[in-house]
Amino acid sequence: MTPPKILIVGCGIAGPTLASFLLLSDVPPSQKPHITILEREAKGRAHLRGQNIDIRGAGVTIIRKLGLEAQIRAATTREEGVQLVDENNRVWSQRGVDKTGTIQSGTADIEILRGKLSELCWKNSQRVSAIAEADGAQGIEYIFGEYLKEIKQEDGQVRVLFAKSGERRSFDLLVGADGMQSRTRKLVWGEEGEKERLNPIGMYAGFFSIPREDHDGNWRRWFHAPGGRGIMIRPDGAGVRSTIFMYVVNDKDPRFMEVANKGNGNAEAQKALLEEYFKDAGWECERIIREMKATDDFYYDTVSQVKMDCWNKGRVVLLGDAGYCASPISGMGTTLAFSAAYKLAGYLQTYIKGKSNDPLSSLAEYNEQMRPIIDDAQQLAPGQPHFYNPETAWGIWILHVLVSSLSCTKILFVIIKFFGRILHLGPQAADYVTVEEFGFKSVPQWKAENIGKKT
Ligand SMILES: Cc1cc2nc3c(=O)[nH]c(=O)nc-3n(C[C@H](O)[C@H](O)[C@H](O)COP(=O)(O)OP(=O)(O)OC[C@H]3O[C@@H](n4cnc5c(N)ncnc54)[C@H](O)[C@@H]3O)c2cc1C
């Protein structure tokens, strides 16, 4: 049997993770799949953007299997926990990180910048690829700064047209791991159904970084302003920048959606809208707005969930945020990306080992096994996002007093520990994602002291 040719669109978190596990399939080198990863961003830019994300539960098991745990732990942001602050920076409550990782709270045991994590996933896939090549397999082909214009399925093949080069190529399987705004999803499932698939939860956010000031510290400070506005200021781990999550919960102003629809080429309009909403909010907003205008790592999007009945159409399958984005406030996005990439590679083993002529039964299993996991992960805590982001100053005061008294009496801890999963308080679902054994070959741990050195 000739090895399957697999195109993975997107070199974020899920894409290179899938590629790594596929190459770790326990088959002779000549039978290992031929993998191409296509990334829209240019090589130097692809792994720059994005702020704090976390890895929890099953996600931690997967990075260990990838040999990536030490590198990731060496690159964390070292966030101490979450503080609720008011306009005078008075701390109303604080909840530290649970370093044992046994209770899933706001700050996870592993917090890392998204750009750094995607860079590590990409470099680790290069490392796995080099090991496979040395063994006689074909290594991963990476194409940066390119995207697909057309995807067609005929004669058991996925035929694609590259937008910039105009080249046409055929693959046995195409995996869309191209994020929440997935172009693969739009090309294959149709633009017209996007309104049903992409479900905004009424929250719009800018993610960027600003120069760090001494008082920023290592705690995440979370400030609320009336009108459903909020800002989180967080450490970057390097002690150089502070990262910002600036959001508005708003169902009325259509401009939030309009500026998002125009994509990231529209950063000036997105920044201007956030400035309009935050210029009178007090606290450190003057500094944050000034720096937002100057920053070059600005990223804006609607906070949305992707919901679909089925994640494959023939030989095209969606992975990670492209198929089932749970939203940044679920705390599950990265853990889902890791677990789903691992599972998809696992279910594809029957196809890769030649026990099945096509990948369709593997994709059916992926759909079936992922469904309960996704349904669980997409359940947000009751009242999210409105209860946590009050409309009035009184509402914010009540939130502060409530959280503060629940934290002081440790009731919050007890509620999260015993009822967190049922009530969907925090990303408890990460602990309940199973990590089956698929018989992948193991990969040597990538030691932390090699950070920054060529792999
Ligand atoms: C620039 C950026 C910044 C982010 N910042 C944050 C953040 O600050 N906080 C947070 O919680 N989550 C953030 N996320 C989302 C987070 O990375 C995901 O929720 C999660 O890690 C799941 O990963 P994924 O691999 O499924 O998708 P993503 O991490 O979104 O990766 C998708 C990849 O596909 C590429 N891509 C997109 N379209 C195409 C195309 N047409 N052709 C080829 N490649 C394409 C993207 O450039 C990206 O590299 C960000 C995502 C991106 C792309």
Radius of gyration: 22 Å
Low-confidence stretches: 451-455
> What fraction of the residues are assigned to beta strands by DSSP?
15-25%
Structural class: alpha/beta
Largest sheet, in brief, is: 7 strands, mixed
Which architecture of the domain at 5-75 and 112-196 and 307-380 and 431-443 per CATH?
Answer: 3-Layer(bba) Sandwich
CATH topology of the domain at 5-75 and 112-196 and 307-380 and 431-443: FAD/NAD(P)-binding domain
**Number of β-strand runs:** 18
Bound molecules: flavin-adenine dinucleotide
Average pLDDT figure: 90
The end-to-end distance, rounded to whole angstroms, is 32 Å
Shape: globular
The CATH H-level homologous superfamily of the domain at 5-75 and 112-196 and 307-380 and 431-443: FAD/NAD(P)-binding domain
Oligomerization status of the protein chains: single chain
Lateral strand order in the biggest sheet = 5-4-13-14-15-12-16
Percent helix range: 25-40%
Number of helices: 15
**CATH class of the domain at 5-75 and 112-196 and 307-380 and 431-443, please?**
Alpha Beta
